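Dear colleague,

As promised, here are the two records you asked about, laid out in our usual form so they can be pasted straight into your sheet.

NAME FIELD: protein one
SEQUENCE, THEN STRUCTURE:
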Amino acid sequence: MSTPQTGAGDPRRSLELLWREDGAQEGRPGPKPRFTLEQVVATAIALADRSGVAALNMRAVADELGTGPMTLYRYVPGKAELLDLMVDRATEPSPEDLATVGSDWREHLVLLAEGTWDDFAAHPWLLELNQRRPVMGPGSLTGFDWALRAFEGLDIPARDQNLIITGVMSIVTGAARDHLIADSSDTPPPTTESEWWAAQEPYLVRAAEGGDYPRLAAVTTEEDAWSFHGREAMRFTLDAFLDGIGARWALDG
């Protein structure tokens, strides 16, 4: 099964819809639209939140709205363009987020990382997407513009600002994929996650005690060596990264 991808549809139509330039439904012939584009997108997001991207198709969204699939084509050309709208809406900062500003560059980038983690926790399907062609809509650009506030008043080149933000996002996305991504909805495993780890435990214990993996055995002897959660793993790596950024530019914070 191929990985769903942003930017896989008609870029002109996606951009028109993202920036609300297509005249929406008002100018089209036929009966008055039953829904707004925002309702269609919100319904698709709720479906993906509940069942993952694998369950997302035009018929499924139409069923959620209590209509037929053909009705949705009055709003979006297809699933690919709908996915672009969903990503932009799901990652758009709230007014409260935009009003929150870090006291310095470091705190602001931590807020960026924590907010991104919260987005992934609320919408794990975002982690299922190939976003090599990123959505450049008003929601995502508003978030990026807010992120750039970290560097106001600092003498850091624009290219390096982009690289730093990219680094923060890569850290969060990598940790979130390891800890937040849901099991496949089309071919779900027969066991729960705890059952899976319980099945592995005796093999891992034997491996650690058998002498073939001495470094693994040494690490495992510490009682809390593996007692961390995903958000903690993200923050550990993020803090080390920000330490390096601060040292490189001799920044306070």
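NAME FIELD: protein two
SEQUENCE, THEN STRUCTURE:
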Amino acid sequence: MYEFDDARLEDEDALREADPLLRPLAEAGARVRREAASAEVPLSRLDPDDRPRAMITFGPEARLLRAVLEPTCPVPLVAWPRLGLPGWVGPLDIVVVMGGGDKVSLAAAFEAVRRGCRLLVACPADSVLARQSASASTTLLPTSTGDPLAAAVVALVALHRLGLGPLVSPEAVADAMDLVAQESSLSLDATQNPAKAVALELADAKPMVWGGSILAARASRRIAEALRSASGRIVLSADAGALRPLLAEVPLRDPFADPFEETGVEQRPGLVLVDDGMDDEEAAEERIVLRESALAKDVLVSNLAHTQGTAVERYVTVLQQGLFAAAYLQIGLGRA
């Protein structure tokens, strides 16, 4: 069992050893800029008047694309998780594939070319997927960083230029990521660094992560995965209906218990609320109920929030906040 030591969050040697963990998070904005620069030429050739009948997306961030596009997309869209294409897909449709050489992406690209579909592919130019998807109807967005989120941002730019999605500025998204990296700098202590503060709040907790809007809920799942990997603990990301009964079952703290004498005490939950400022009325009410339920059981509530900018800028901000918090939790536990 790893024990959290808050001194590690200020220890220069421990932080230096954790550089492979923190540096990729700090460079997230740079990866977005690099992918956007690589795709400038193919992006410039896209025509918004050539609108498809429907859109089908594949890849690790296919559901992110769907979440961003659904509110305004003028055509039906599907994030397809299975091998091959739906039977109705044909030359009037566009297939968006993001990824490397996994079977699902390769099968989608092969079938799209065979059926004469329009293809938008984000992958390395020298990859098997690029070769598999090559056709007169294919637009290749060449990637080089191996970052699915950066590739998805560039794909969203392309889809906006095709008239299928909202305006997405790679520079603004990268700036948002850079700002989180600055605020989460290892040189700042927990009073100035919100990621370290959240890590301290979750030091001995089993986190429950919740987001109200579609994108905040997606970020909550990604953050829960990172916290699970960082701590080796059970971490749950679920809707409010699943979390409320769990909070209701949390026993109240014994005010007379001595934490220094008790051994084997079960870890209590910690509630992490992800807020991108885009809750609908129902989600706003659920947020209040979850917070009140947690506080009634003396469960610590942590907040990851950003309520300015476009939907994508808000998403990457709360996501990076959570990923940095998970990294500092891992460092504090001595697992880095």
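A couple of things worth noting about protein two: The chain has a mean pLDDT of 93. Residues 6-18+186-253+264-332 form a domain with the Rossmann fold fold (CATH 3.40.50.10490).

Best,
R.
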